[in-house]
User: What shape does this take?
Amino acid sequence: MSSRARAFILDFDGTITTQDTISTLFNFALSKQASKGQDLSVARDEILAKYSDDFSKHVKDFSPAKEERNTIPQEIEYYRSFKNVESRSFERVSRSGLFSGITDNEWEEFGRGAVKKGEVVVREGLGDFIEKVEKLGDVWGVVSVNFSSHFIRAVLGSTGLEASKVEVLANHPDENGVLLGPEIGEGEHGSVMATSDAKLASMNALLRSWRNASGKSVSEVVYYIGDSGTDIECLTEGGTTGIVIAEDRNSTLMGMLQRVGVNVRHIESYQPDEGSSVYWARDFREIVGNAFPGSERISKQT
Assistant: This one.
């Protein structure tokens, strides 16, 4: 691998997919438990209701309020502050038994089927994007707070990608339905990933693993692609080119970045030697058309 290889790290929900998939995973788990004679819909509803209450209360009580946060450090502190809220919710999921008894193979089978049925839609241009990355000798991986790394791999594999070789750092339930963090070694898992600082730590862990791998040499050129507030630290990390996935400039993440003083330009204005910058694109087709050498520029009007 060339010493000039670039590293691309992607979020999953709302980035690789067009919509968040958490409700899809819940529905799958409910159907699996129902097939065993267990109706856990009340448990699911309670998980969602308690999370909504905790979230709303935290937002209301947090200081400084949204309109008073105008710097990146302030916004990072806000997203990091949700750790207890998210942890309590993950614990409720683990205690509920909602994911209990679902095997890795079943998660993978469900992921492939969900794409085939249209329950999960992969964002336009992903296949071409990955083909470009691999053709140029660059590397790529996924960092996600999603509930199942095996589900993620299956969704990627359903597009024709060699998903078994993809580095995926995400949470996953064990055989008892207890949510574990990303795998950090053979059979070892870290803490559950839920907040922006945890995603940044996982991104850096992925970069270290690539740079330390035998026969691989990854440059300092790093791209992070994401769509939500939990991506803020990865998108704005020093030395990283951030790419926001958004339908237009009116997305929640785009508005937040503007509020804290981050200038986000469309990917058509991408310059490879600018260092740390943040751009936005509607899909991977626009990224391929503007961020890769030799590609014909694609403007946001097309």
In short: The mean pLDDT is 91.
